[in-house]
Design brief:
The protein is 5% helix and 51% strand. The protein has 261 residues and is mainly beta. The chain has one domain.
């Protein structure tokens, strides 16, 4: 299955919010679930991803384009977790490509529900974000290794974020064949892995000092980036703990972004 969905929000000639494009392509279905009142600053659109079919399955090629114009905010959420599933035959991995562009004084808040990598699945996630110099970004990724009581499939993610040049390049490879995956230097006993990137001078502020926290349920670390941003990475035993660690810990001197919608 191949699908290409897109969202584009901008200001109209009077400075009000305009949803210029909202295009779904099964199984990537988009729903406009909210807009800010007239006169709100910044004018905001909220869009939810709704899965219209099981998967992605092996061989599926899915793409989502997000374009945020100057001075507007786009909030993207999903209604449920995405479950990557195996397919029949040698059809190759499933792929999800997310490409985003954010203009000056624009904001993208992209925090979907987790990706669950079922046993036998092979899933590739690629996220590419281009930010203008005064744009803002909050991007969360959560991966659950297998359903309850299930061994995980394979997962490979690539994240590229640019702000007048490279801000972050990150790759993550997980799966039953990854060398030393369950050793203490990598996941140990964790089943949930995630990250939260905050970028842009207005949200990330000055680079914070590195901070880490560990408790009996998981661990998290905040790492300042060379540009305007920081990255929180976390490991946890379950999805609830992972979300808590990414959202609230660790604390740092840098200002946190606005509360999630």
């Amino acid at each position: 299955m191949r699908a290409h969905a897109a969202v584009r929000v901008e200001r109209d000639a009077h400075g009000a919010l305009r949803v210029a494009e909202l295009r779904s392509d099964v199984p990537v279905v988009l729903r406009l679930t909210g807009t800010s009142p007239v006169g709100a600053s910044p004018p905001t659109a909220t869009v939810h991803l709704v899965s219209a079919a099981a998967g992605p399955l092996a061989g599926d090629e899915l793409r989502l384009d997000l374009t945020v114009g100057g001075g507007v905010r786009l909030v993207v959420r999903s209604v449920a977790a995405m479950v990557a599933l195996p397919g029949r035959g040698g059809t190759g991995p499933s792929r999800l490509l997310v490409r985003a562009q954010v203009g000056n004084e624009g904001e993208l808040d992209f925090q979907p529900e987790p990706t669950v990598v079922a046993r036998g699945a092979d899933h590739v996630a690629i996220t590419e974000v281009s930010l203008a110099s005064s744009a803002r970004l909050c991007l969360r990724e959560e991966i659950l290794l297998g359903r309850f009581g299930e061994l995980p499939g394979a997962f490979h993610s690539t994240l590229r974020v640019d702000v007048n040049g490279p801000l972050l390049r990150q790759e993550l490879a997980l799966g039953p064949d990854a060398p030393g995956l369950r050793g203490p230097a990598q996941l140990g006993g964790a089943r949930a892995v995630g990250s939260r990137l905050v970028a842009g001078p207005a949200w990330a502020g000055q680079a914070a000092e590195a901070v880490s926290v560990t408790d009996e349920h998981g661990e998290a670390a905040l790492l300042p980036l060379a540009g305007p941003g920081y990255l929180v990475s976390a490991l946890a035993a379950d999805a609830v703990t992972l979300r808590r660690l990414l959202t609230t810990a660790p604390r740092s001197p840098a200002p946190l972004p606005p509360p999630a919608s």
